[in-house]
TrEMBL record:
PROSITE patterns: HIS_KIN
Principal localisation: membrane
Keyword Kinase: yes
Keyword Aminoacyl-tRNA synthetase: no
Species of origin: Salinimicrobium flavum
Listed name of the protein: histidine kinase
SUPFAM superfamilies the UniProt entry points to: ATPase domain of HSP90 chaperone/DNA topoisomerase II/histidine kinase, Homodimeric domain of signal transducing histidine kinase
EC number assigned by the record: 2.7.13.3
Histidine kinase domain span: 137-351
One function term, GO molecular function aspect: ATP binding
Record's subcellular location: Membrane
Top EC class, one word: transferase
Annotated InterPro entries: HATPase_C_sf, HATPase_dom, His_kinase_dom, HisK_dim/P_dom, HisK_dim/P_sf, Histidine_kinase_KdpD, KdpD_sf, KdpD_TM
């Protein structure tokens, strides 16, 4: 414990430990590269970065994460001893490794900071529970799409001459879905960082709510075509002065949550209302609903209902609530009498109606 505290207080010692560990692990892997292959080396280096993130501050661990990516490229990706990459597949792998390594380093470091604050406030037990939940969820969310991408790329490289066009299209589709899944996690992490900082500033402009909802539905139906989404736009709605990007993410997170946890084939319904100076968005589904005693908990960070399927970090609904509150609005969750759940988003906003003027 004394050595760990010494490391935490000495920034230069952190740099030395981090850089030395990466070089040592890379050297060992280089000696056995013919046995383990460069894909396994990437996983080993990611594991090393994850472990070091438990002890190093933000700047040393980001430096270590970037260094590990460059070392993997220089020593293990063909052509070796250069930073050039010959194939698009290897370039994609390097890019994914770089993003995951830095994201994992930053996020793990941020969790440590939260844990330290919680310890000072005598909330160590609760913070450790959040950390374990997040680590478990994040590990699954990163490991699954990474494995999908690596597997698909390997198949394309080894069997490219034997694959039919349908097979190739299917593999590229798998890579696209896995990439989108990783992108969602990055967006959620960035959104949560914005909410936790004191610098979230709304970029207000005039937006058509119908267009925002149509855009969200189109993106979600591309990924989950088995779920019908019902939306009948109200053409007489005014334009609302809001941060359209944040509101779009609010709607996306709620619909994506419904798609993930309801039975395929059940309908998700989206409605809009305009009441005085407020506009409402109502999103309902025909799933199992939520336990009555958990309705308020689902908006907490990292919270996931017991016995739910693996996947997700428990950030989506928390981010949705945060962005709604940033607009001075409210978000309400209730179970429907027949079956399913309903989210009601109410946001105050300035309004205007488009007027078309003709030249005389």
């Amino acid at each position: 414990m004394g050595f760990i505290k010494k490391i935490e207080k000495n920034l230069w010692l952190q740099y030395l430990l981090g850089i030395g560990s990466i070089f040592l692990i890379s050297l060992i892997c280089f000696l056995f590269i013919d046995i383990i292959g460069y894909h396994v080396v990437a996983l080993i280096l990611l594991l090393a970065v994850s472990i070091l993130a438990m002890f190093l501050d933000i700047y040393p661990i980001v430096t270590v994460a970037i260094l590990s990516a460059l070392t993997w490229n220089f020593l293990f990706i063909q052509p070796k001893a250069t930073f050039n990459i010959n194939t698009p597949q290897d370039a994609l792998l390097f890019l994914m490794y770089f993003v995951i390594a830095v994201m994992n380093a930053v996020f793990t470091s941020k969790i440590r900071k939260v844990e330290n604050i919680a310890r000072q406030r005598k909330e160590r037990e609760k913070t450790l529970q959040l950390y374990n939940t997040l680590f478990s969820s994040l590990s699954h969310e990163l490991k699954t799409p990474i494995a999908t991408i690596i597997g698909a790329v390997d198949t394309l490289k080894i069997n490219s001459d034997k694959l039919s066009q349908d097979n190739i299209h299917e593999l590229f589709s798998e890579i696209d879905i896995a990439g989108n899944r990783l992108n969602r996690q990055v967006e959620n992490l960035l959104s949560m960082s914005r909410l936790e900082s004191d610098f979230l500033t709304l970029k207000l402009d005039w937006y058509d709510i119908n267009e925002i909802i149509h855009s969200v539905i189109q993106k979600n139906q591309t990924e989950s075509p088995g779920h019908p989404i019902s939306f009948i736009p109200q053409e007489d709605l005014p334009l609302f002065k809001i941060d359209g990007i944040l509101i779009e993410q609010v709607i996306h997170n709620i619909i994506h949550n419904a798609l993930q946890y309801t039975t395929p084939g059940t309908c998700i319904k989206v409605e809009t209302r305009y009441i005085s100076e407020f506009f409402q968005i109502i999103i309902s589904d025909r799933g199992k609903g939520f336990p009555d005693d958990k309705l308020d908990l689902v908006f907490e960070k990292f919270y996931r209902l017991p016995k739910t399927a693996a996947g997700g970090t428990g950030l989506g609904l928390s981010i949705a609530k945060g962005f709604v509150l940033a607009h001075n609005g409210t978000i309400k969750l209730e179970n429907l009498p027949e079956k399913g759940a309903k989210f009601t988003i109410s946001i105050p906003a300035e309004t205007t109606f488009l007027s078309i003027y003709k030249d005389d």
